[in-house]
Write a structure and sequence with these properties.
9 helices; 2 domains; Elongation Factor Tu (Ef-tu), domain 3; alpha+beta; Aminopeptidase; 6-stranded antiparallel beta sheet; 17 strands
Length: about 325
Amino acid sequence: MTDMIRELALLDATSGDEKAVRDHIISKIKPYCDIKTDALGNMIAFKKGKKTPAKKIMLDAHMDEVGFIITHITKDGFLRFKPVGGINTSALMFKTVLINGKTAGVISGKPIHLTKDEECKKLPDADKLYIDIGAKSGEEAERILTVGDRGVMVSDFTVSGKNIISKALDDRIGCAILIKLIEEYGEYDFTAVFSVQEEVGLRGAKTATYAVNPDAAIILESTTAADIADVPEDKTVCRLGGGAAVSFMDRATVYDREYYAAAMNSGIPVQPKSAATGGNNAGSVHLSGEGVRTIAISVPCRYIHSSSSVANTDDIRAAYDLAKYMIGYIANDK
C-alpha cells in the first residue's frame, strides 16, 4: 500500500480544491464500483459484495489536506495568506511552498536580525508571516497568481524502515485504505465516501452522509501520535507501531461503545486513542438523519499537519485489517 499512499500524498488538495486527488482515486476504483460526485465534490462509491447486510454500512476518508490560501499581494510582491485547516505556526516558518502546483515560494517573516529579544521567545502570529515568490513588485506577482489561489507545503515522500514520511498523510492514508478495500473486499455491500473539506469543519461528510443515509459508519483517519521525547506517557495519545488507534471519545463524538469494544477485542493490533481531544468526520456523520452508529479507526501519525508527518506501515496494515473486520462485524450485528 506504500506506493498507493505515495501517489496520493504527493498530490496537492487543500480543502475546497480536492479535484486532483478525486480524479486519481476515480482512476483507481472505477472498475470496481458505481461512482457519483455531489455538488460539494464528495465522491460516493457503492461497492457490491456477495451479500447485502441488514444494516447499510458507510466508510469515510477525507481527500483534503491542510494548506493555505492567498489573501493579499503587497506592493512589493509578497503574499499574505491564511492557513486552511489547523496548522501550528512552527510548522510554517521558512518552509518551501507550492502555489497552484507550479509557483514555488518560501514562508518567512520579520528578519531575525531585526527581531527583539522578547520577540524571539515566542512564535509570531500567522498574520505576520508572508510568502516570498521572488517577485520584484505587486504587478509582477499578480501576473503569476491571484488572491484566492491555494498552496501547500512542499514535501518529499521518504521510506525509512517501516516508517513513511510525507505531507498529507492525514488523510491520504485513509483514502489508500478505502481504495484497497474497494479493490479487494467483496463479502458485503458497502458505500465508500471520499469526502471534502474535513480540515475546515467536517463539512463534506455532513452532506455525503445525508445522501447515503447509512445505519453505521466507519471513519478512516490519521491521528496525532505524541510518543516523542519529553512527552509524559499519559499525553502520548497513541504510539507508532502500536497498531490502529480506536477512539472512545473526542471533542466532536462519543463513539458507539459496542463497536469500540468489538474493535479492541478483534485480535488485530489495536490501541485506544487515549486523549479525548480533536475530532474527525465522525462529528458530522454520527449526527446525520436519525443518528448513525459510528467508529473511528485511525493510523497514528507524528508531526501531523506538517510537511514531515510520520506513520508506520504496520499500523496502516492493522487499520486496513480492522476496517475489514468491522464491516463483517456490523453486517452480522443483530
